[in-house]
Amino acid sequence: MRATYVALICASAVPAMAEAPFLQLPLDCVYGETCVVEDYVDADPTDRQHDFTCGLKSRNGHRGTDFALMSDAKLADNVQVLAAADGIVQVTRDGVLDQPYTAAIAPQLKGKECGNAVRIGHPNGYQTLYCHLKKGSIAVQTGDAVTAGTPLGAVGMSGQSNFAHLHFTVLKDGQVVDPFSPTPKDTCGWDGETLWLTDLPYSTTGLFTASFTTWMPRMAHVQSGAARRVDATPQDDLLLYGFAFYAETGDQMTFEATGPNGPIFADTVTIDKGQTQLFRTFGRKAPDGGWMPGDYTGTVKLTRDGQVLAIRNAQIRIE
């Protein structure tokens, strides 16, 4: 089995919407090494979802592109969010806490789901929106003229977010534009059009989810979500699993988990046989005396030949 792996190079593609801005990578990272797209714009207007290639890398109603860092710990590095194109700052917001989104804090975030944010206006009715920035990091003000590459703030976890990432949206007269496929289409699939000035490889291989569990699951439990745990006792074993699609032989899945006292495990597993769907699990038995109560985070990363294809995050609370 061989999954599609396409390089998107804007220099060889001319957008049908000629007045649209071409875009640089909107954060200071090395794509495929220190950041990767976790979810693309949902190109399906129904209650289903698919990305611009008709692939699986989106969520129903997702209105932007999520650029994920390699772990939540990278928030401490203050990775800079950058203006993707020249323009004028229209709106900024700061002061929203960086914390994993839960149902308990949803009421206080109503109207602030984007978290700390910057919106930039561009010619011909285009705008770019940068969401979930770190509290206190906003570096521009309304009315500022910016050029592509101007620092706007740092990647955070504010608003409706539970992992370290930038949610980036392109708008035209208030309507979402997918920068990977900017012209609306009635047919399914990518036609080669893109607004990106930089090489952003796309692979059909990805991760449906990553979750903690307290027991060794079977595929049926992973597929149904029955294996997922969001809380546990200090005496429970802790396991982290990644549920992948279109993984190939030789791909690697890396598991990392941290708790209140720091790292608790890290390991990399090589996929011995590619499959349409598969999962892998790694974890630790409860230590003598049990786990310390508190919040634990996990990261599952899928790589091929050293390039990151997908990353997913998980949380569990021990109490």
Automatic annotation (TrEMBL):
Keywords: Signal. SUPFAM superfamilies: Duplicated hybrid motif (SSF51261). Transmembrane segments: none annotated. CDD domains: M23_peptidase (cd12797). Residues 1-18 form the signal peptide. Gene3D superfamilies: Glucose Permease (Domain IIA) (2.70.70.10). This is Peptidase family M23. GO terms for molecular function: metalloendopeptidase activity. Residues 62-179 form the M23ase beta-sheet core domain. It comes from Thalassococcus halodurans.
